[in-house]
Amino acid sequence: MLNDRFEQPLSSASYNAVAQYVAGVDCLLSANLGAEQALDAALRADPDFALAHIARARALQMAARGPEAQQAAATARGLAGTCGERESSHIEIVALVIEGRGAEAFAALNQHLGSNPRDALPLSLALGVYGLFGFSGRADHHAAQRDLLERLAPHWDADWWFLTYLGWSHVETGNCGHGIDLLEQALADNPNNGHAAHARAHGYYETGEAEAGARFIADWLPTYDSASPLHCHIAWHLALFAFQMGDRERAAAVYGAHIQPSVSQAVPMFTLIDNAAFLWRAQIYGQPPAPTADRDIADYARQHFPEAGLAFVNVHTAMALTAAGDHVASARHLESVEAQVADDRQPPGPVVATICAGITAYGRADYGAAVDHFAKSLHDLDRIGGSHAQRDVVIDSLIAAHLRAGQPDKARDVMTARAQERAAHLDQDWLGRVSDALC
């Protein structure tokens, strides 16, 4: 019997099909293009290769082609009876995720990993800021990922994919030195690994090394295809480093070249989140973009996310609508989020509505109310998902609301509290303005 790259047996006797399957899965695990094409080639070589069908379903899901993904998952399920127990369980976990049944998938995955600790594709579904842990609503999702990966580590040795997520989990839980060492090893083993490059950018962010982080991305990004899944988001990190360094012209240039909706080739969720976060930050940092940029991302949000849904998307939809000055739509969106919270359809709970309320109040220039909402959200902030770098926008919004409410001393207190836990992440110009206001 043939095996995959992780020594897992496969129910295919075709060497060509297995080779193409391994290549396709590696494209998925490294956030590179080519997964669908490789998996299609695997299925031409072996049309009944069930794991190639479910991997293809995951590739289609990641490309935001939901109906096609569900059809491919149904085909894989139909072939599961020809597979061994490990492959059947693998198929079911991925299919559940594609169907949006995250809690069931997570329960099945936990059981699956007990016997199959090196089954990478199902494990990958739990990881990262948009995985089963990240969107679970748990406040401890970063630590939970780290603990799971540490338990599995004895089975993995020095695989570049596993090291990527193990390293990132340590960066996000404050053990940056160890995490960065693991990420450097992952990148050395596979320099084209988009997930490792992304995680390394987080390492620079968490240690406050904006200049080094910007150099790293500027050197790495040109070799990464602009249509690749994380191209827009890694460019967003470059723009964030530019903000930190006070280089607003560079931040705007990166936005125009790589992030704005007309150039981003990322899936709609990634495009919305990165654009809304950039434009909202630009406004609160005192560098409002051209009005057309705000209108464009608000229109994009209305087109792709007309109804409230995932908590993290809801927060960024609120930013997009509010930044564009559409207070009616922002208020309507807030009402929808509050209704979902009341119906227990937001795993993070009330904090989602609290943040959206703060954004809406800030847009109305009701800075006292914005302060109250943002401050209230901090205790449960991690529950909305995302990374520290992404969630910092809420803390930044609180600081900006304090400043606009005439409370620079309280703005400084928030900055100080964050700096005591993690490196300072605000651009020097803004820090200077806070200092000036206190003099």
Please explain how this structure is put together.
The chain is 69% helix and 0% strand. It folds into 3 domains: 15-125, Tetratricopeptide repeat domain (Serine Threonine Protein Phosphatase 5, Tetratricopeptide repeat, Alpha Horseshoe); 138-208, Serine Threonine Protein Phosphatase 5, Tetratricopeptide repeat; 225-438, Serine Threonine Protein Phosphatase 5, Tetratricopeptide repeat. The longest helix has 17 residues, at 268-284. The model has no long low-confidence stretch (mean pLDDT 94). The N and C termini lie far apart (74 Å). The chain has helices at residues 15-29, 35-45, 50-62, 66-79, 85-98, 102-115, 120-124, 141-152, 160-172, 176-189, 194-206, 210-220, 231-244, 248-259, 268-284, 291-304, 311-323, 327-342, 351-363, 367-377, 388-404, 408-421, 428-438. It is mainly α.
Secondary structure layout plus pairing:
Blueprint: H1 15-29, H2 35-45, H3 50-62, H4 66-79, H5 85-98, H6 102-115, H7 120-124, H8 141-152, H9 160-172, H10 176-189, H11 194-206, H12 210-220, H13 231-244, H14 248-259, H15 268-284, H16 291-304, H17 311-323, H18 327-342, H19 351-363, H20 367-377, H21 388-404, H22 408-421, H23 428-438
Helix pairs in contact: 1-2, 1-3, 2-3, 3-4, 3-5, 4-5, 5-6, 8-9, 9-10, 9-11, 10-11, 11-12, 11-13, 12-13, 13-14, 13-15, 15-16, 15-17, 15-21, 16-17, 17-18, 17-19, 18-19, 19-20, 20-21, 21-22, 22-23
